[in-house]
Design a protein that fits this description.
By secondary structure, this protein is mostly helical. The protein has a single domain, classed as 434 Repressor (Amino-terminal Domain), CATH 1.10.260.40. Helix content is 54%, strand content 12%. It has five helices and two strands, in the order E-H-H-H-H-H-E. It has helices spanning 8-14, 19-26, 30-37, 45-54, 59-62, and strands at residues 3-6, 63-66. The longest helix is centred in the last third of the chain and has 10 residues, at 45-54. It is globular, with a radius of gyration of 11 Å. It starts with a strand and ends with a strand.
């Protein structure tokens, strides 16, 4: 079964964002960013795109699928 993984924390910290500042930039709560980083919550396509724009990188740089 395919699994959605992410490198959000890595990209976020490299760009100098805290969870709170990234959340503010994309219009969600800090908790939402936290749950995405911890793979508890899968973001919508729109939110994934907003995050990638805020971090100035590709969606594929942040989110990727791991096949078993």
């Amino acid at each position: 079964m395919a699994e959605l993984l992410n490198a959000l924390k890595t990209h976020r910290t490299e760009k100098g964002f805290t969870q709170a500042s990234l959340a503010e930039a994309v219009g969600v709560s800090r908790k939402t960013i936290n749950t995405i980083e911890n793979r508890v919550f899968t973001p919508s396509t729109l939110l994934a795109l907003q995050i990638s724009i805020a971090l100035d990188c590709s969606v594929h740089d942040i989110f990727y699928v791991k096949d078993d």
